[in-house]
Amino acid sequence: MSYQQQKQPILKKITKGLTVGTIITGSTFFHGPPVLALGLTKLIKQSPKVDATNINITNSWLAINNWLIDQLLPNLNWDISIDDDLDLNMQGRYLMTCNHQSWVDTTVNQYFGLTRMPLTRFFTKWELIFIPFVGQAFKILGFPMMKRHTKAQIEKNPELKYKDMNEARKACEQLLSQPFTLLNYLEGTRFSPEKHAQQKSPYRNLLKPKAGGLALALNILGDQIDALVDMTIVYPDGAPGYGDFWLGEVSRIAVNLRKIQIPAWVHGGNYEDDAEYRERFQHWVDQLWTEKDQLITAMKSQYQSAAA
């Protein structure tokens, strides 16, 4: 039965929606101001203690979200698989790739990672800095914020390409003072059948990967990370919307984590200016994506067989 078929009585949905919205909003207003206030002190002096305190406050906010999931969504079944050679801990430094289907993906990552990995950051657009509270929190918590320029702008002023890279380098290097998980959605957007057809993607379950962001992160951080982690998320009953998730209309979520071996030749390459290296790197990512596509098919088949 798909989540679309698991509709609840309207009064129950309204009650649950109001409960979730009230608790998350209240938690955000409780945790947000201390993060912003402490963040302002960093304008005067950088402080590892302030960074650690803000991370603890953020983890407290995430813990309430996870508590809501456990309390209000008791019928949600998690199937989490971690490869034996992947040793995760709260003091690690990880790069993570993941397929992207729904806004729920980030919640899944937070639910899984809160007690297993350091706080997850991801590349964000610089323009988000102007969103009240959210944008400032991203900046304070060390999310790499990118001023991405269009191809037309770079063609007009080639120096902008290197400015973008330098901004990314500075943002990533700031993470090295603490444990971190840096997430990259290689597809660059959420999967949909329409996008899949438009791209003529060679993969059954995935859009084409964009290798540039991963190449940049590995170039900056590659020899200082503990592992490149690939997370695969499968919704056996279909990718849900964010509201569907919080209203309890998702019954199963499957998560697989595997460690990706990084070839020695990857380190130190110049993805932007070395065409041979870029082609080799793209081929390597295509191979990883082919393996991931096969894994998703196998995970889906497992649930289809169980339902038969």
TrEMBL record:
GO terms for molecular function: acyltransferase activity. Signal peptide: none annotated. It holds the Pfam family Acyltransferase. InterPro entries: Plipid/glycerol_acylTrfase. Keywords: Acyltransferase, Transferase. Residues 94-236 form the Phospholipid/glycerol acyltransferase domain. This is Acyltransferase. It comes from Acinetobacter silvestris.
